[in-house]
Amino acid sequence: MQTFSKAERLCSKVLIDKLVVTGKSFHSFPFKISWLETQESTVTVPVQLMISVPKRIFKKAVQRNLLKRRTREAYRKNKTILYDYLHNKKILLMFVYTAKTIETYAELEKKIKEALVHLIKELNNKKN
Question: Could you say which residues of the chain have pLDDT below 50?
Fold first, then answer.
């Protein structure tokens, strides 16, 4: 199940706006993670993900694309951590890269794992 299909990408402007306005967020360096539990019928997978690297920090598209590719790959390999917990829930998820430097893939993967574990704790806190 280590794929990242089109259905798993968060593309809907309506859902992105809803995530930004009403979603909860936390920082896990080098990311700001925003999430929102949803009941939308258009969401067919447990998690829809959006990855953002600000143009304000990284002026060159090559650098932004590199960071998005690395983040997407790290998420793809480790998303089962989150999927195993969710069961029948559906969430919208956004990773915003906030660091000023380009992290290595190994570092990003470690941070993604930490962020996913933190997200599970946040979801548990919400439920209780």
Answer: none
